[in-house]
């Protein structure tokens, strides 16, 4: 693209000069004018097609999904399909005009190349040339004119590519800035946390204990869009070995609290500080609905060592699902065929591989039985992870040192359980 961008002005200037040389100003001016008119007509014909295409894509996806949803969705599917067909018909009608426009532009362009040379010939400018020289001049001019039109088209195509690239660059720049500011914020959080701890009179040694991952001070949280109060004045320090379970009724703000911990939402008042990093050396988040990229099982678990993969899969209770040793071709590239429970097990296999210090589990075992949930939590603790989990089953409480109960409308209750023991894999709790 860069080479085209550099060369285009030169070829344009060269062929404009060549055209000017044989036809005078008439040639370049007519071609330029013709090109502008062609571009305007093209734009007018294109814009309704682009918007129709977007609408068509929007309609197509839910229509397909709804089609699979069975009889309950039959009526809705029918309506959407009708609307989809209607849009398709309108699209074809509009595209027809676009193709007519493009072809007419091409045909008229070649005629124009002869018209612009015909004028000086018939007005006697080339009266002294022989018929052979005249025919050579006409064919040379036709070539120059058509090439010139081609150059203009290329330049316009390039301008739209440059616009796209500028847009992407802008977005990537924004992303980079956001990541940088998040990094800065995290560093500030750490020093601020240290400073505020100093104010409490703990100066001298390292004020914020190294093993602290999250520090919440009189934090108030409301839903950003509605302002609905979820948690009021919560102070909490989450440190290694002190797993916290967040419980409460539906809609009381359990997931919202995890969003704040992960930096997705901001607290309304007070402060919340994450003093660790994302990833194996810090914190890993496991959502209720796991996300996997396309790729082999090895890529999902990200280990080059087959023995380790088998071990993680064994720990997650998944090994029978996969043929041993064939991790490159195993069907996680089709993870959509896995059941929700198998997906949750697979995300635990990944967690076991990463072995982070902290694991934030948002109902990460909701599709599994109590026994399997028990086993997975036990392995997490055995691998030395500190858990921050949201769950509904009371049987999960024994894996946590603290229970944070959210009552809604800002009310909460924090209770301490006895210290959780780390159990070796395979033993009961
Ligand atoms: N993205 C969002 N935009 C606006 N409101 C939201 C959003 N996500 C959640 N909420 C609202 O915030 C409130 C708390 O939601 P949250 O998901 O934290 O509840 P929860 O306690 O995790 O519930 P559950 O047990 O059902 O998962 C709810 O009233 C919900 O409607």
Automatic annotation (TrEMBL):
TM stretches of this protein: 12-37, 96-122
Protein family membership: Belongs to the ABC transporter superfamily. ABCD family. Peroxisomal fatty acyl CoA transporter (TC 3.A.1.203) subfamily.
Coiled coil: none
Protein name according to UniProt: ATP binding cassette subfamily D member 4
Entry-linked SMART domains: AAA (SM00382)
GO molecular function: ABC-type transporter activity; ATP binding; ATP hydrolysis activity; long-chain fatty acid transmembrane transporter activity
Domain of life according to the entry: Eukaryota
GO annotation, cellular component aspect: peroxisomal membrane
Alphabetized UniProt keyword annotations: ATP-binding, Membrane, Nucleotide-binding, Transmembrane, Transmembrane helix, Transport
GO term, biological process aspect, one: long-chain fatty acid import into peroxisome
Pfam family, any one: ABC_membrane_2
Domain ABC transporter, first and last residues per copy: 216-428
Organism per entry: Buteo japonicus
